Amino acid sequence: MQLQNEKDIYDIIQQDTTMMEILKAAHTLDLPDWWICAGFVRSKIWDVLHDFTQPTIIDDVDLVYFDKFTTDEAMEKEYENRLKQLLPSVPWSVKNEARMHLRNGIDPYTSTVDAISKFPETVTALGVKLIRNGELRLTAPHGVEDVLNLTVRPTPDCKCSDAQMKIYYKRIKSKNWKATWNKVTYLDA
């Protein structure tokens, strides 16, 4: 199947009952500035582009949000527990991006989309959420061209330092996306 633009991405997500069920569960938490990001979106796109009939199993469903007033990690675990009660088979991972800059050793993020924009790869810097009336919203700070073209490259922030590029190369090796999606191409820039 061909995917050419954001509308096509919206369509494949809306047609996936499991993805929509996950998004609806996340929506019930009513978290500030929340998104489900990274592999949740990328894997679906790449599965479709590879004509897979079954979805690729993902390690976790990354739900990120931004709450600068409550940055206690215990709250994230509470949200994970609530989501596990709704959908126990989903491997939830909930993170407040208002505190994640500390773990990453960088300047504070200004929002969840700002944090997503600084993920190591453009194909991971994607997020989706439900807004009012169940409407989908997609964020792709670096566009959707790379994910649609199966091209993995570092985000501009990642290219700014040797340390960040080491993280990028380490992720390429550890994630080994090409083993699952053989049409993927890796780039340095």
Provide an overview of this structure.
43% of the residues lie in helices and 13% in strands. The protein has helices spanning 6-14, 17-28, 39-49, 73-86, 97-104, 112-117, 145-148, 162-175, 177-180, and strands at 35-37, 61-65, 92-96, 127-130, 136-139, 151-152, 185-186. It has nine helices and seven strands; from the N terminus they run ααβαβαβααββαβααβ. It has one domain (6-186). It is of the alpha/beta class. It is globular and about 40 Å long.
The major β-sheet equals:
5 strands, mixed
Radius of gyration: 16 Å
Task: Decide which structural class fits the backbone.
Answer: alpha/beta
Average predicted local confidence, pLDDT? 94
Q: Largest beta sheet: what is the strand line-up?
A: 3-2-1-4-5
Oligomer: single chain
Distance between the amino and carboxyl termini: 27 Å
Number of helices: 9
Identify low-pLDDT runs.
Answer: none
Summarize the helix and strand pattern as letters. Answer: HHEHEHEHHEEHEHHE
State the share of residues found in helices, binned by percent: 40-55%
Strand content: 5-15%
Tell me how many strands there are: 7
